[in-house]
């Protein structure tokens, strides 16, 4: 019988890999909480129409990448390909947007049926940050300041750079789109196949084509900046002032667009040069029209999303994973003999009470002290506690440091906390 394996592009995260994931996730939680953002959790399955109406019928996501199926009632459902539409749906459905401002964030799996490659999978994990009810560029700036702080906390500040642009209002973009299509239609035979297809469906996406020949053609194309409305220009100028005041470095990229239909005005990407072609680690912008597009009242909105897989890959590639992340076991308790096993169980429970935050592994499954010590060493624990018949009868415990040159010592069990504190510190 053939072994059952994971679906291609849907990867397991194994125990030796989860510590770095937890480091990234915990850092995200700490940073967003410091700005007053509240967590929201949405289901991974939504009505298909939610994404068709928000993302756009002629985007690659809706046309080719969504996991869509009919349930037993005949309703069309889709595994969420991104989180913004779900967050808007949840906030609107539960009355979080009416005459209110909201700072929300979420974390969880998303699903797209695209070709798996390094840092990009069919089930992937994203952090999303979404703000509602605030019109000014100050909230745009806050999101960029927040993300810059996250890079500092992760040790990635020197390995990421920010690109920003304004794509104006829908009306300004429509006028620009017409001019761009007119220009590119005269060069259609020279465009790459993806760009030829997008010329009739989503021509603004041609601007971020990676094809060298297409980019050369774009050198003579109309510039989006020439079509911006006055309000978008003022918004973007003030955003740049705020970023300058906050000391957040950036580059204005006039060809930067977003792949989803709901964006307007500010768009941005955080990029790294340390992951090859998969360089974008965070992207977002304003989407003031999306809430109304999904049936709500007009609501100002801005947000971003970042893929956790790429952040983990980046930390590993740059060898920036903190040493403590690689091993979070503090104490390994080894015991030989029935009485010692009983004492080890109760002693370990008392230590977990007395030493909150410490990780304590109690050896189970028997074996000699030699084999238990091999496991203790492989666990990465700072110290091992040894309990044999002699120690149990005398009310003692032996402490063996595993990561230092400190001498092994045997102490009374009621003196154990003090001895551990001297060896392990805080």
Write a structural description:
This protein is α+β, with helices and mostly antiparallel strands. The protein contains 16 helices and 16 strands. The protein is elongated and about 90 Å long.
SSE order and pairing:
Blueprint: H1 18-34, E1 38-39, E2 45-47, H2 48-55, H3 60-65, E3 67-70, E4 76-79, H4 84-93, E5 102-111, E6 123-132, H5 137-154, E7 161-166, H6 170-185, H7 193-201, H8 212-218, H9 230-246, E8 251-252, E9 264-271, E10 280-286, H10 290-293, E11 301-307, H11 308-317, H12 323-326, E12 331-335, H13 338-354, E13 360-362, H14 369-379, E14 383-387, H15 389-394, E15 396-401, E16 409-412, H16 416-424
Parallel strand pairs: 1-5, 7-8, 12-13, 12-14
Antiparallel strand pairs: 2-4, 3-4, 5-6, 6-11, 7-9, 9-10, 10-11, 14-15, 15-16
- How helical, in percent, are the residues? 25-40%
The Cα radius of gyration reads 27 Å
Report the mean per-residue pLDDT as an integer.
90
Percent of residues in beta strands? 15-25%
Query: How many strands?
Result: 16
- End-to-end Cα distance: 52 Å
Shape: elongated
Strand order of the largest sheet: 1-5-6-11-10-9-7-8
Major beta sheet, specifics?
Answer: 8 strands, mixed
**Backbone structural class:** alpha+beta
Q: How many helices?
A: 16
Low-confidence runs: none
List keywords for this structure.
single chain; 426 residues; alpha+beta; 8-stranded mixed β-sheet; 16 helices
């Amino acid at each position: 019988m053939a072994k059952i394996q994971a679906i291609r592009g849907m990867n397991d995260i194994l125990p030796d890999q989860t510590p770095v994931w937890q480091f990234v996730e915990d850092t995200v939680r700490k940073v967003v909480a410091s700005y007053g953002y509240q967590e929201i959790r949405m289901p991974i399955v939504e009505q298909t129409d939610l994404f068709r109406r928000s993302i756009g019928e002629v985007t690659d996501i809706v046309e080719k990448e969504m996991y869509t199926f009919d349930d037993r009632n005949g309703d069309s459902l889709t595994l969420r390909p991104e989180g913004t539409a779900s967050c808007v749906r949840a906030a609107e459905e539960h009355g979080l947007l009416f005459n209110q401002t909201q700072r929300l964030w979420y974390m969880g799996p998303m699903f797209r049926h695209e070709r798996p490659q390094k840092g990009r999978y069919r089930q992937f994990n994203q952090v999303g940050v979404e703000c509602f009810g605030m019109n000014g560029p100050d909230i745009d700036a806050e999101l960029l300041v927040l993300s810059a702080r996250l890079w500092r906390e992760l040790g990635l500040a020197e390995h990421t750079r920010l690109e920003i642009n304004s794509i104006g209002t829908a009306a300004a973009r429509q006028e620009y789109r017409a001019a761009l299509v007119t220009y590119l239609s005269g060069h259609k035979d020279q465009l790459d196949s993806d760009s030829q297809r997008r010329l009739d469906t989503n021509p603004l996406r041609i601007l971020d084509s990676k094809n060298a020949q297409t980019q050369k053609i774009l050198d003579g194309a109309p510039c989006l900046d020439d079509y911006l409305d006055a309000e978008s220009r003022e918004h973007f100028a003030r955003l740049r002032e705020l970023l300058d005041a906050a000391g957040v470095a950036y580059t204005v990229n006039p060809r930067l667009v977003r792949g989803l239909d709901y964006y307007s005005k500010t768009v941005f990407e955080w990029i790294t040069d340390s992951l090859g072609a998969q360089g974008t680690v965070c992207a977002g912008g304003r989407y003031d029209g999306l809430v109304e597009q999904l049936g709500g009242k007009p609501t100002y909105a801005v947000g971003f999303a970042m893929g956790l897989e790429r952040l983990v890959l980046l930390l590993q590639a740059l060898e920036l994973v903190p040493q403590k992340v690689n091993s979070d076991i503090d104490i390994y308790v080894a015991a030989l003999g029935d009485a010692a096993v009983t004492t080890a169980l109760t002693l370990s429970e008392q230590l977990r009470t007395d030493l909150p935050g410490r990780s304590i592994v109690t050896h189970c499954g028997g074996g000699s002290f030699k084999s238990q010590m091999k496991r203790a060493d492989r666990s990465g624990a700072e110290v091992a506690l040894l309990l044999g018949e002699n120690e149990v009868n005398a009310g003692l415990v032996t402490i063996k440091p595993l990561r230092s040159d400190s001498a092994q010592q045997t102490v009374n069990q009621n003196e154990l906390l003090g001895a551990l504190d001297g060896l392990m510190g805080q």
